[in-house]
């Protein structure tokens, strides 16, 4: 009986968590593209104006970022200014939650058919590398190891801490600016 | 609670063995199809491989309404549009693809257009775009390697935009795959070797990459056993119909395995090498397989060691200490490649192909990193890792 009452609240909490994580990730993608040269090198191969979306099917939470050129991303929130070029779609919010709460690695989620790619696969692979790089920076190593296939051996603590601090600062600033606007 | 999860799907009816082609009329009429079109290429026709298909149908009073025999090695949107036009003009109601990967992929794409309507195949590109079953579609493979008869994918080149269009849908799967030993009996030695190693790579990557699952494992190991047993004996005796059938079945089984568990770095490097150096796919698979297995070895030690049983038989497996079985599996594959090189000069290194220059290795590495298959490789592949594997495969 109690479980039945709690279940809707748990579902609501899960939905809010996924929504919040998408907001953080979108802003963090923008931030990491301003901070990290490796991410810039990955992103620079994307066409200028390239719109990337991550979403929960069928019409759930999403994040949209645009490659504005020179390897920089701009976070658009949840509304795309035009049709997106690449969409990575979780089949269900439960799958998005597993990935975003680091219970399932992104690569494992792909292997387990939890997600679909609508668009150019090579760009999806590139964006996954960017997401992995971002997670390696902003998550504690123990958690990051659960999120990415292999934690980068050449990412040492000082670089990680400095980059993470800069990314979090930029994310926080962006949140504040959004609230003010 | 377990974290494991997998999906497995293969609704293709496999019709395999002696006189399998003669089942085509019955299977077609069972789907109310009376006016089939054959899609094939000039090589298949010149080899006389259409004759048994046509006579099998005619003997049962089923007329082949149209034959398109001009599918190029890399099919394009224009070819697909032309074939769909002929299909409509001739009022066909079903398609029989007879050939290798290109003819089969082209027929899949034609089936989309003639079933869904329109002339622009690019409109159906991507995953999950198709929502309805397509026209009756049968596949008769004439090589034993690609496994395209059981994969839900087709790739067609858009020659105007210079891109390759992928199509992914379970509706692309044929209703039946007809595996008849007559179709591969006249395959030249180097194609037998390369396609056999293609199927071997499909099975080994299916068994060792990230999306492996119990059902794909069963198909993969059975395919490896058949190829290990039959490939070299067929190379010795190309007219061995039983051996040919074993290889053809193995190819289909490996196709079922990898289409449900995906492939890894061997394919990523192979796709990139094929695109840059125009090397045949099967040759690339054979070439890269041991080098990639060596690179992945610490991530796949257990499954790769298990494969020794299917690669080299129970006696060798039992005599090899568990800790050495992964290395022994790679050695067996290397011995097989050496034997194939002896038979038909199937290259074992990039240098032996004579078509790759060392300066292209970086370009191959770069392209391989963006290949979809790399996602399912058990190890995270960096630019430097890919370069290192290529350097080892060079000579």
Automatic annotation (TrEMBL), chain B:
Residues 11-181 form the Alcohol dehydrogenase iron-type/glycerol dehydrogenase GldA domain. The keyword Oxidoreductase applies. Residues 192-394 form the Fe-containing alcohol dehydrogenase-like C-terminal domain. Pfam families: ADH_Fe_C (PF25137), Fe-ADH (PF00465). Its cofactor is Fe cation. GO terms for molecular function: alcohol dehydrogenase (NAD+) activity; metal ion binding. CDD domains: Fe-ADH-like. Keywords: NAD, Oxidoreductase. PANTHER family: ALCOHOL DEHYDROGENASE (PTHR11496), ALCOHOL DEHYDROGENASE 4 (PTHR11496:SF102). Belongs to the iron-containing alcohol dehydrogenase family. This is Alcohol dehydrogenase.
């Amino acid at each position: 009986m109690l479980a039945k009452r709690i279940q809707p609240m748990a579902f609501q909490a899960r939905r809010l968590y996924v929504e919040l994580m998408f907001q953080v990730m979108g802003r963090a993608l923008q931030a990491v593209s301003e901070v990290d040269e490796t991410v810039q090198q990955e992103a620079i191969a994307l066409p200028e104006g390239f719109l990337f979306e991550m979403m929960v099917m069928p019409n759930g939470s999403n994040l949209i970022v645009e490659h504005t050129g020179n390897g920089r991303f701009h976070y658009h929130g949840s509304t795309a200014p035009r049709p997106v070029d690449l969409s990575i779609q979780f089949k269900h919010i439960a799958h998005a939650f597993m990935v975003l709460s680091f219970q399932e690695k992104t690569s494992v989620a792909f292997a387990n058919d939890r997600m679909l790619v609508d668009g150019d696969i090579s760009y999806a692979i590139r964006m996954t590398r960017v997401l992995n790089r971002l997670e390696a920076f902003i998550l504690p190593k123990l958690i990051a190891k659960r999120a990415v296939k292999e934690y980068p051996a050449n990412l040492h603590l000082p670089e990680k801490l400095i980059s993470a601090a800069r990314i979090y600062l930029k994310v926080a600033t962006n949140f504040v600016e959004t609230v003010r606007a | 609670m377990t974290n494991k999860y997998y999906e497995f799907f293969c609704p293709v009816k496999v019709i395999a063995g002696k006189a399998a082609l003669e089942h085509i009329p019955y299977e077609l009429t069972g789907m109310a199809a009376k006016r089939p079109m054959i899609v094939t290429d000039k090589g298949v026709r010149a080899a006389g491989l259409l004759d048994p298909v046509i006579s099998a149908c005619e003997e049962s009073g089923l007329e082949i309404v149209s034959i398109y025999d001009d599918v190029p090695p890399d099919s394009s949107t224009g070819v697909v549009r032309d074939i769909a036009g002929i299909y409509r003009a001739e009022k066909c109601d079903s398609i029989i693809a007879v050939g290798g990967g290109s003819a089969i992929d082209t027929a899949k794409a034609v089936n989309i257009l003639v079933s869904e309507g329109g002339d622009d195949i690019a409109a159906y590109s991507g995953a999950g775009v198709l929502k309805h079953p397509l026209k009756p579609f049968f596949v008769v493979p004439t090589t034993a390697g690609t496994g395209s008869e059981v994969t839900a994918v087709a790739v067609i080149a858009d020659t105007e935009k210079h891109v390759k269009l992928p199509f992914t849908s379970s509706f692309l799967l044929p209703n039946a795959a007809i595996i008849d030993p007559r179709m591969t009996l006249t395959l030249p030695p180097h194609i037998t070797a390369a396609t056999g190693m293609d199927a071997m790579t499909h099975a080994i990557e299916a068994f060792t990459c990230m999306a492996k699952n119990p059902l794909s494992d069963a198909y993969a190991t059975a395919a490896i056993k058949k190829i290990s047993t039959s490939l070299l004996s067929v190379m010795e005796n190309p007219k061995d119909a039983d051996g040919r059938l074993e290889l053809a079945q193995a190819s289909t089984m490996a196709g079922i395995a990898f289409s449900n568990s995906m492939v890894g770095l061997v394919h990523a490097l192979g796709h990139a090498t094929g695109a840059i150096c125009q090397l045949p796919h099967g040759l690339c698979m054979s070439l890269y397989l041991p080098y990639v297995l060596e690179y992945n070895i610490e991530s796949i030690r257990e499954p790769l060691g298990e494969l020794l049983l299917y690669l080299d038989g129970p006696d060798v497996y039992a005599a090899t200490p568990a800790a050495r079985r992964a290395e022994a599996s790679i050695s067996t594959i290397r011995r097989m490649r050496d034997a194939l090189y002896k038979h038909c000069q199937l290259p074992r290194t990039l240098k032996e192909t004579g078509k790759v220059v060392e300066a292209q290795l970086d370009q191959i590495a770069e392209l391989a990193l963006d290949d979809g298959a790399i996602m399912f490789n058990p190890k995270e592949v960096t630019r430097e890792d890919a370069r290192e594997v290529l350097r080892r495969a060079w000579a």
